[in-house]
Amino acid sequence: MSLCATAKQEAIERITYRYGTAGRIETSYAAEIGNGHRFKGTVSPASPRALIRQVWFDQGRFRYLLTECVGGDCARPAGLAVLRGDTVVRNSSCARAGHDPAWFSEKLVEFKSSLETSTSKTGLLVFEDSDNMLDKIY
């Protein structure tokens, strides 16, 4: 799974999500200025002092939700959930390896302690208040 941004002279022109292997991409989604697609983001409190950072996109009846839990006691560091309505279709955990770059790069989005204080570095990722069924995922 990857979430990548393409920039030209510091301006982010495209954000792409890919799921699968190098030889076989199962799901992909791209937001760029001309196609009208957008990624959404929010941040929600979890256990004491923990926050769950979230980036997602909707494709058809499905929501693909990438999460990262920081601070406090997190049940898992990060994950991918696929939602359909009020049903969790898939809920996978991700583990951080020592060589990983930032999961949600501050060059793309700067998550703070609340939705109101968080900032996106591009119009291709917009903040929206959403529950995203975190009580079922975490």
Could you tell me the strand content as a percent range? over 45%
Strand order of the largest sheet: 8-7-6-5-4-11
Cα separation of the termini:
19 Å
Category by helix and strand content: mainly beta
Characterize the structure shown.
By secondary structure, the protein is an all-beta fold. 3% of the residues lie in helices and 54% in strands. The protein has 1 helix and 11 strands; from the N terminus they run βββββββββββα. Strands 8-7-6-5-4-11 form a 6-stranded mixed beta sheet, with no helix packed on it. Strands 1-2-3 form a 3-stranded antiparallel beta sheet, with no helix packed on it. Strands 9-10 form a two-stranded antiparallel sheet. The longest helix has 4 residues, at 134-137.
